[in-house]
Amino acid sequence: MIKKILAILGIVVLSFVVILCSAVFIIILKAPRFDTAKLVLAQNPRIYDKDNMLMTTLISAENRQSAKIGDMPQVLKDAVVCLEDVRFYEHSGIDFKRVAKAIISNMTKGFGSEGASTITQQV
Asked: What is the pTM of this model?
């Protein structure tokens, strides 16, 4: 009797894993191509005079200025990595340890108690 229950449970778990893997595979296949141009956020409009001199920068709901990664201080890069993705340099974009921990935490403490997205996943 126990063997039958374990066999049925094994089939259910295996079926769930196959369906989950199939769904992930289909999502990956149908995902749009990565386009870096779409990563650019709207910037604050800048007004220049006839001599191409900056007169003013308009303020909007969200004040944004783009910067190249090389222009940012190392302490800022370190702070972002420390807060958002401590093992950023150790994984290939998905931190499976963090995902597993988040799943367990969400199951024991309630949905949304912990996230697992890496900087790569957020971008």
From this structure: 0.46
